[in-house]
Each structure stands twice: as structure tokens, then as C-alpha cells.
């Protein structure tokens, strides 16, 4: 299994950009499917973006065209580039790693979009 640590969250104005990073420690990163999820106050956790070990990508409709997920297997890191941020993007963002029956979560990083 892997241990995941998110970073890069913070306060940003509407229309601004932020890049989140998720660093993995442990073995087998390159064969994990990776995902970014978010949870806003009073709402369920939702999938934002996912990328498989082969590079196939899915996005939530709400972030298509604005967010980009990528991975660097040499650095054991997955990224979420967030552009044109909106107040409704405010949430705690969590990194997820999945391989077969195994699943791991990071601790989360707060993203606040506000003027």
C-alpha cells in the first residue's frame, strides 16, 4: 500500500488558479489508479478527476475544461491543476489511490475560493 500526502491548497480569488500535489510513499505507485475527490461542508464527497495507470482520464462535468489531472510516476506524484476557480470549488480535496481490492486516502487539503 501507499501513504498519500496532499499539498498546495489555500485561499484564491475567483478566476484564479491553484495546483494541488499528492505525493505517494511506498511501492507500486505506477500501477495504481489515482483520483482527486472533494468534499464541501454539508455535501457528500465527490469524484473530481481520475487517471488510470495507463493514462486514461475522467473528469466531473463541473470541472471539465478548467481542471487537469496528471501523474509523474518517476516522482510518485499526481497533480491537479485548477484554473478559472469558482466559489463552488471550495472544498477539502483528497487524493485517492486504488489497485485491485486495495485503496488509500490522503489527509486532505483545503481549497477556498473567495474574494
Multimeric state of these chains?
Answer: single chain
The number of helical runs is 0
Strand tally is 11
Q: How many angstroms separate the termini?
A: 40 Å
By helix and strand content, what is the structural category? Answer: mainly beta
What is the radius of gyration?
A: 13 Å
Helix and strand run: EEEEEEEEEEE
What is the fold's blueprint, element by element?
Elements: E1 2-7, E2 10-12, E3 18-26, E4 33-39, E5 46-51, E6 57-59, E7 67-72, E8 77-82, E9 91-99, E10 102-105, E11 109-113
Structural notes for this entry:
- The model has no long low-confidence stretch (mean pLDDT 96).
- By secondary structure, the chain is mostly beta strands.
- A hairpin with a 6-residue loop joins β4 and β5.
- Strands 2, 4, 5, 6, 9, 10 and 11 form a 7-stranded mixed beta sheet that branches. It has a 4-stranded antiparallel beta sheet with strand order 1-3-8-7, with no helix packed on it.
- 0% of the residues lie in helices and 56% in strands.
Summarize the structure.
The chain is mainly beta. It has strands spanning 2-7, 10-12, 18-26, 33-39, 46-51, 57-59, 67-72, 77-82, 91-99, 102-105, 109-113.
Amino acid at each position: 500500500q501507499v501513504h498519500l500526502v496532499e499539498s498546495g491548497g489555500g485561499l484564491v480569488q475567483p478566476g484564479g488558479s491553484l495546483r494541488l500535489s499528492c505525493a505517494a510513499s511506498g511501492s507500486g505507485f505506477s500501477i495504481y489508479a489515482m483520483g482527486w475527490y472533494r468534499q464541501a461542508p454539508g455535501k457528500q464527497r465527490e469524484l473530481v478527476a481520475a487517471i488510470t495507470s495507463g493514462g486514461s482520464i475522467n473528469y466531473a462535468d463541473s470541472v471539465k475544461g478548467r481542471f487537469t489531472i496528471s501523474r509523474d510516476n518517476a516522482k510518485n506524484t499526481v497533480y491537479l491543476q485548477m484554473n478559472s476557480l469558482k466559489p463552488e470549488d471550495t472544498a477539502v480535496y483528497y487524493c485517492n489511490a486504488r489497485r485491485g481490492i486495495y485503496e488509500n486516502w490522503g489527509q486532505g487539503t483545503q481549497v477556498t475560493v473567495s474574494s
